[in-house]
Structure formats: structure tokens, C-alpha cells
Design a protein that fits this description.
Length: 871
């Protein structure tokens, strides 16, 4: 399984523009050099640079190493052979422990690694994991091990060939980890590390106790109307940290009751028990000292019908017998039209003799297709399939599966037919990564999954863009650089796709953002882990569709989206406009909303006009939107575009920024899904002259009606004499700015239809009674005054008996109010990489997949030797 992941990752690093002459590369020494910086960008001397060299059998040939000088610079002569692979490791130690480390990298082929030079390496804060293991008598024992990213399952380090009694592992502290060991003749056990900085010197010392006892687990399966079964088995799967089940490896041995012993160590001759007449089961499970969690899968057959159920159970050393009933049994997906299933067995090792035993069940088949609906073959892929069975007796967990490079690209999973799949992520070396959800009806009707080449193009025509037309750029990812117009010193590289080599940026580490675009339509992926995934297959409308652009009003819409996984914090997307006559007048208020959302095939899945703007309703319709449902609710409602790109203005609660100098509207999205944003505002009159106005100047009157006032609120940006209308319970109201006193930090507003004049200071919140019924209906908060404009937050309030207009006054109170309306920020991506599956996030990496496979086979046949420093 992990060898496949290594191969996928390795194949993914080869760049398109190297493929023309890669066969002509001669084996020779080469220079590998660069500059080392710490997490703050300061040069770092005495950093150890070590390169492990492997041959095509993955055996270590030797090492080359050096250290950086006072300026952080190093230059290393590396032994070269086109059959070899090179894995760089960068570590900096103080007197007693490691304090900085480069990111974990795979081994690169000679043809790629020998061309890298003058790399800027940004090291991260480092920590140490010290692993040992003891048995029940306290004696040390040997083990194999694996250290993984707990969120995405990325195996950072592992060793399956050598058994260890103690291991030291160095890792960045900005990730969360699980350590799993595989002791000889014992159950694998794991330990989670959630915050390395909480340990002294960032050092985790973990001694595993591999002792275990055996616990009996018993209960019943129940399906209404069925009193007996023809077949019936309960299969235990071990859950790895992150609630992951590697379906081919996680099944525990069958009939572990055979391991039960008396006080003298003699066998009790016990067996797992499955009573077909009643649905009663009684099995044995291990209860380790480190504790373990299992998913129990009950599979049963009555006549020609298969049923299944899932429960989860945790056991610790010394657990007594435990009752565990399957109360939510349901039918299983998997029967074909002729009533058969090609791969229905679940294979386990028999605990008595370790021979394989096949359990009859039912599994759903999924086939991978290409863009023309042809079946794929000879394709390797890694898959993650997340199901949420929390309403059906278990919990949310993820099946992990690998497709070997065999004749047919397909996989099989045991799935309940009462619900669908929350999310599928597929990573292949020959196609763009794919993310999708599937309902129960979709699984039943069409379980095929289409993979696409990375071909950014027009949504309607499906034409791929020439690589030279696609701009790509890497930027340092921080609050200053992750904005629409990053400073020059933020750029790491900025070219078009057919000329830019991103590998130096990728291996250099640090927080990096990636920008890709066609013309003025740009997508800025914030804080992308460059080892996490290949590029999403972006699609755009090739032109902005303008509508209602007559008189003094303007409207425009643009569709864009991606089928790829979410491997970033959030995205910024630009929508270009023109300031010529009849187009958008950026001196007036500009509004943005996303009323339409699409599926992967650009079918409408949500229309705010018909379905409403509730984020929870959207999440209930499609779980892909559940994590950031509050953010999507703000986006579906209309919001005023701010004129300041700083994070204080352009953020989650104000997700639209108008760049009037460059004629772009920027939209902030939680993830790059199929969306149809709408831009509206005033129209430039025929006599107006175009120019780069800063936008939002006072004096113009804005009379655009926005959506009904909600408790989530909306941010309005207005100047003196500007007004905006809103609706409350079907009645239209106006809010006008009369005066702005910048020095005093206050604004005078008039709200009608029943005129209410109110003065609000910066840092105040005031509640108002719009309909004169004695109860407050709305609140107004003055968030800021910048460039002659006021930033106001207006919200619907829960009806209460009206109180006198109140002044909060204290800055901390306005901050409290802000916290109430600011949705939960998309989490900083914790820089956790995904499974060792695909390196990079740019087009050439994916395009090179197929050809590099040929190259790899070519290398394999031409093994050479070279004299490098041995250890």
C-alpha cells in the first residue's frame, strides 16, 4: 500500500519541459546548492544538509552531506547516476536538540534532482519523537513503525524491513501526528500527538506498552421482519488515527476466540459464535494497554438479500465482556442487474492457522472512466472514501483504498444503501485529482467515476487552454502577500505554465500560495501544501456575461469551479469588468452575491431564489458545504464590495473587494467549487470618462435593493449622501449617510420609511425600531471610517421590548459584537500534507505522469554503480 503511494508521489514530480531530453541525460556528478533560512526568514548557519541516495530497488546506495555557512549558503557535490533517486533532508541542531527542519520530501529521480540549484529553503520549528516499546513484563521489544499526519494520513516516516528497539524521528512542530508501531506477535498500537509545542523542548518521549488482554463482545443484529439468517458474520476493522480504515489491511484475524487461554496458558478451545436462528453473536477482540478503536461490520444474508450494519467500539486493557448490539441494520449496495457481484468476499486471516478465509458479503463496485466514458486500465490510484454513519449506529470514518496498476481500474466497498458517500477524493499519477460526493440514488444509478486530464478550459466548450496562455505564480503565504495585488517581494515565481519550473519552490518549503489564471480571471489558492495534491482541474466561462447593463444599472455573472480536492485554506477569485460606457461604475456601491451553485457537470444544485440563502439548508442538501456553511450563507446573500484589500476589510464577513485601479472584483471563497457569482451596481453613463478611480467616493446616491435583513447581518460601505435600501419583513427601508465626522469618529444616519436619525460613534452598536411596534428590529454598528467612507454592519435582531437607544462605547464590546457575526474562519491548513500520493500543484507535474513511468522503466533496465560516501 505505502509502496504504491511512494510511486505515485515519485511519478508526480517530473516536469513537462524536462521530458524532451530526459533520455539524453548523462550520469555525472552535479552541484546541489541553496540558502537556508529559519521560520522568520533569517539566514541559518550550521544546518546539516544530507542527501540519501537510493537505487531503483529502493536500497540505499550512499549519502552526501554538508553544512551551511554563516550566510546560510551551501554547495554540495552529489554523485550522479540516472538510475538513482535522491532524498534531501535538512536539519539544524542547537547544543542538545533539533530546533529547525525542512519539510519531509520524497526521493527524486536523477533527471529532476540534478537540475535543481540555488534553492531558498525555509525551515520550520522542529520537534523530536522518541519511540520505545515494552511487553507485559516491562522488557523492551522490537517493532516496525510508521509516523503519519493525523488529518490526512500522510506517512512521513516508516520502516517495514528493520525491527527497532528505539527510534528517534524529527518532524516539524506545526503538524499533528500519530505514531503507530507494529510489535512482533502483537496488535498494532498508536499514539496521537496533537500539539508538539506543549512538550518540553518539543520532544515527545513515548514508551508503548504492548500488553493486551482479550475481551468478549456480544450482542444481536436486528432487521424488522427477519427472524433468522442464512449467513451471518461480524468483521472487526482496526481504526487508525484520523478515523481511517485501510480496507485491505485493517481487518483483524477471524475467530480470535481461539487465542483464549486459561491460567496455565492452555487453550480454552473457544470459538467465535454466530447464531443464525436468532442473530446473536459472541466474538473475541483484543483490549490493548494503549487502547484501540474498532469498526464492527455485521454482514448477513437472508434469501437473496444482503444486509449490513456498522458500530464502533473502543477497548482498553482488562475490559470485561461488553454488549454491543447492531440496531441500525440496512441493505447493502452492490447487486448488479443480473443479481451478481463480481467481488463480494471480504478476506481475513484465520487466527488458528493464519490461512486466508473469505467472508461472503456484498460490496459496491466503482469503476474509473476517462472523459469519453471509456474504462481506464493500467492506472494506479489512491482513494479516500468518507462515509457518515453516525445516524446508523457508527460514526463518520474514511475507507482508504489503493488501486494497483492492473487491467481494470475499479474498487469495491461495503456500503449501506440508506445513505450516500460524503466525499470521495481520488489521486492518480495520470489524471487531475478528483473530489466528489455521491447520493444513495447516484450510487445506485451510476457508480462510475470520471477522471480528467488537467485541461483548464471553457465550461461550455470544454476546450483546453494552451499552456502558454495559462499564467502561474507562487507567492509567500502570509497576511501581507495573500491579497489581490501582492507586493513584488512576495513572488517566488511568476511565468506561464510551459516555462515555469516550480520544483525549487516546492522543495524549498515554507508557507506558499499558488495563483493560476487565464487573462484577468485568476484563482489564488492560499497556503497550499505543495506536497498534498496535484492541481484541481479549473474551469471558467471564457467571457464575463453582462446583463441588465442599461440605463444606470449594471449586472454581470461568471461561472468558475473545480473538481479537485480542497488542499488549501481558502481561495481568492477575480472577476474582470470594464469601466467604459454602459459597464460597471466603480465610483458607486458595487454588490456581489453567489445565488447559484453547480455540481461537477455544471448542473444547478442550489438556486438562492428557489432554495433560499440558509447555510444550514445548503449543507443539508450537499455535505460538501457543511464545514463553512456560515460563510456560504454570507456569499449567497448580497454583500457590498469593500475598497480596501486589507484583512480588516476584505475577509470572511466582507468577502468582496473591488480593485478599481485594475478593474477586477475579487471574491473570497471557502473552497473552489462550482459557483456563479453575480456582480451588480451602477452603470457608467455614456458621457463618463473612464479611469482608475479609487472607488467609493462620496456624493453618489446608491439605491440598490438588497436581500432581506438577516440575523447574520451584512456589511455596507457608504459615503456622505449615499444611501442603500434593504427589506425587512417585506417592507423596503433606506439607510442614508448624512454626515461623517472622521476626527470625532462618528456618523449621522437616517433610516426610513418612518424616519429615524441616529448618531453612532466608532465602536458603538445601536438597536432601532423600524416599524414602531415597541420592539427593536435591527442593529447598526460603525466598524470603521476610512477614506471618507463608513463601514456599517446592519443586522436583524430578535424582537424584544424596545429599550432606549444604548451606547456600548467600549471597544471590547464592539469586538464582542463582531465575534458574533464573524463566521468561523477557515482553519489555517496546519500545513499537513496528504497521503504520499502526488507532489505539487501545477499542470506540468500532472502532464508528465505517463511519460515518466516509461522513463522509470528505462532507468530500471540500466542500473549502474557509483562511488559515493558510504555509512
Amino acid at each position: 500500500m505505502y509502496l504504491l503511494k511512494n510511486k505515485i508521489l515519485l511519478i508526480g514530480i517530473v516536469l513537462l519541459f524536462f521530458l524532451v531530453d530526459i533520455y539524453l541525460v548523462n550520469s555525472q556528478d552535479f552541484e546541489f546548492n541553496g540558502t537556508i533560512y529559519d521560520i522568520n526568514g533569517a539566514s541559518l548557519n550550521n544546518t546539516v544538509i544530507n542527501i540519501t541516495i537510493r537505487d531503483q530497488t529502493w536500497s540505499i546506495v550512499g549519502y552526501n552531506d554538508t553544512v551551511s555557512n554563516e550566510s546560510g549558503w551551501f554547495n554540495l557535490t552529489v554523485g550522479g547516476d540516472q538510475n538513482w533517486f535522491y532524498q534531501p533532508v535538512l536539519q539544524h541542531f542547537n547544543d542538545t536538540y533539533i530546533d529547525s527542519i525542512g519539510q519531509t520530501l520524497p526521493a527524486f529521480p536523477y533527471g529532476e534532482f540534478s537540475r535543481i540549484s540555488d534553492v531558498n529553503f525555509y525551515l520550520k520549528n522542529a520537534g523530536t519523537i522518541n519511540i520505545t516499546a515494552v511487553n507485559s513484563t516491562g522488557d523492551r521489544i522490537t517493532f516496525n513503525y510508521m509516523v503519519k499526519d493525523t488529518k490526512l494520513g500522510y506517512p512521513l516516516q516508516s520502516d517495514w524491513q528493520t525491527s527497532f528497539s528505539e527510534v528517534l524521528i524529527y518532524v516539524p512542530t506545526d503538524r499533528n501526528y500519530s505514531v503507530m508501531i507494529y510489535p512482533q506477535a502483537s496488535l498494532p498500537v498508536s499514539y496521537n500527538i496533537d500539539n508538539m509545542t506543549s512538550y518540553e523542548n518539543n520532544t515527545v518521549v513515548k514508551e508503548f506498552n504492548t500488553s493486551l488482554t482479550l475481551a468478549r463482545v456480544y450482542g444481536n443484529i436486528n432487521v424488522s421482519g427477519i427472524s433468522g439468517w442464512d449467513e451471518f458474520t461480524v468483521i472487526p476493522f482496526l481504526i487508525e488515527p484520523g478515523n481511517m480504515i485501510f480496507i485491505k489491511q485493517a481487518g483483524l484475524p477471524y475467530n480470535m476466540s481461539a487465542w483464549q487461554r486459561d491460567g496455565n496458558g492452555d487453550s480454552l478451545n473457544e470459538t467465535d459464535n454466530f447464531t443464525l436462528e436468532t442473530g446473536f453473536y459472541n466474538i473475541t477482540l483484543p483490549a490493548p494497554a494503549e487502547s484501540a478503536t474498532f469498526i464492527l461490520f455485521a454482514t448477513a444474508k437472508n434469501g437473496s438479500s444482503y444486509y449490513g450494519g456498522f458500530t464502533n467500539i473502543s477497548l482498553s486493557y482488562g475490559n470485561a465482556d461488553l454488549e454491543n448490539n447492531f440496531t441500525e441494520m440496512a441493505g447493502l449496495f452492490g447487486l448488479t442487474n443480473d443479481g451478481s457481484n463480481a467481488n463480494s468476499n471480504i478476506s481475513l486471516n484465520n487466527a488458528e492457522d493464519w490461512n486466508q478465509i473469505n467472508i461472503s458479503s456484498l460490496k459496491q463496485e466503482f469503476n474509473l472512466l476517462n472523459a469519453t466514458n471509456g474504462s481506464l486500465s493500467q492506472v494506479s490510484a489512491h482513494l479516500e472514501v468518507t462515509v457518515d454513519y453516525s445516524s446508523y449506529g457508527a460514526m463518520e470514518f474514511t475507507f482508504m483504498e489503493d488501486i494497483e496498476q492492473t487491467a481494470s481500474a475499479g474498487f469495491y466497498l461495503p456500503l449501506l444503501n440508506v445513505t450516500g458517500i460524503k466525499e470521495i477524493n481520488i489521486y492518480s499519477q495520470m489524471y487531475a485529482p478528483r473530489r466528489l460526493t455521491m447520493t444513495a440514488a447516484q450510487i445506485q444509478d451510476n457508480p462510475n467515476i470520471t477522471l480528467f486530464s488537467f485541461n483548464p478550459g471553457d465550461i461550455d466548450q470544454g476546450d483546453a487552454e494552451a499552456a502558454s496562455d495559462i499564467s502561474v505564480a507562487f507567492y509567500i503565504s502570509n497576511s501581507s502577500c495573500d491579497e489581490p495585488n501582492p507586493a513584488t517581494n512576495c513572488a517566488i515565481g511568476n511565468l506561464n505554465m510551459d516555462t515555469f519550473n516550480p520544483l525549487s519552490a516546492i522543495i524549498g518549503g515554507g508557507a506558499i500560495s499558488f495563483r493560476m489564471g487565464i487573462g484577468n480571471i485568476l484563482v489564488h489558492y492560499v497556503n497550499v501544501d505543495m506536497l498534498a495534491s496535484g492541481p484541481p482541474d479549473a474551469a471558467f466561462d471564457d467571457n464575463v456575461d453582462t446583463n441588465d447593463s442599461s440605463g444606470d444599472s449594471f449586472g454581470a455573472a461568471l461561472r468558475f469551479g473545480s473538481k479537485g480536492p480542497t488542499m488549501y485554506d481558502y481561495v481568492l477569485v477575480s472577476v474582470p469588468y470594464s469601466d467604459s460606457a454602459g459597464n460597471l461604475d466603480d465610483t458607486k456601491e458595487v454588490n456581489m452575491s453567489i445565488p447559484v451553485l453547480y455540481d461537477d457537470d455544471w448542473n444547478v444544485i442550489w438556486n438562492a431564489t428557489d432554495n433560499g440563502t440558509s447555510g444550514s439548508d445548503l449543507a443539508g442538501n450537499d455535505s460538501h458545504y457543511s464545514t463553512y456553511q456560515s460563510g456560504w450563507e454570507i456569499l449567497m446573500n448580497e454583500t457590498t464590495c469593500v475598497t480596501n484589500a486589507s484583512s480588516e476589510w476584505f475577509n470572511v464577513t466582507s468577502p468582496c473587494y473591488i480593485d478599481s485601479v485594475n478593474n477586477k472584483v475579487w471574491i473570497r471563497l471557502p473552497h473552489f467549487s462550482g459557483t456563479g457569482p453575480s456582480i451588480s451596481g451602477g452603470s457608467v453613463a455614456a458621457s463618463s470618462s473612464s479611469g482608475g478611480s479609487s472607488g467609493g467616493s462620496s456624493g453618489g446616491v446608491v439605491t440598490r435593493t438588497i436581500n432581506d435583513l438577516t440575523v447574520n447581518g451584512m456589511v455596507k460601505l457608504l459615503g456622505v449622501n449615499q444611501e442603500s435600501t434593504f427589506t425587512y419583513e417585506g417592507v423596503s427601508h433606506k439607510m442614508k449617510v448624512n454626515y461623517i465626522y472622521k476626527i470625532a469618529g462618528e456618523v449621522v444616519l437616517t433610516i426610513t420609511s418612518e424616519p429615524i436619525q441616529v448618531t453612532i460613534k466608532k465602536g458603538e452598536i445601536k438597536e432601532l425600531d423600524l416599524d414602531n411596534d415597541g420592539k427593536n428590529d435591527m442593529s447598526v454598528a460603525l466598524l470603521d471610517i476610512v477614506n471618507g467612507m463608513v463601514k456599517l454592519l446592519i443586522k436583524k435582531v430578535i424582537k424584544t421590548v424596545a429599550e432606549p437607544i444604548k451606547t456600548v462605547g467600549e471597544e471590547k464590546e464592539i469586538e464582542r459584537e463582531k465575534e458574533e457575526i464573524i463566521i468561523e474562519e477557515e482553519p489555517v491548513f496546519e500545513k499537513e500534507a496528504s497521503k504520499e500520493r502526488i507532489l505539487g500543484l501545477i499542470m506540468p507535474i500532472v502532464i508528465g505522469f505517463m511519460l515518466v513511468t516509461i522513463v522509470y522503466l528505462f532507468f530500471y533496465k540500466k542500473k549502474k554503480s557509483y562511488n559515493v560516501k558510504k555509512r
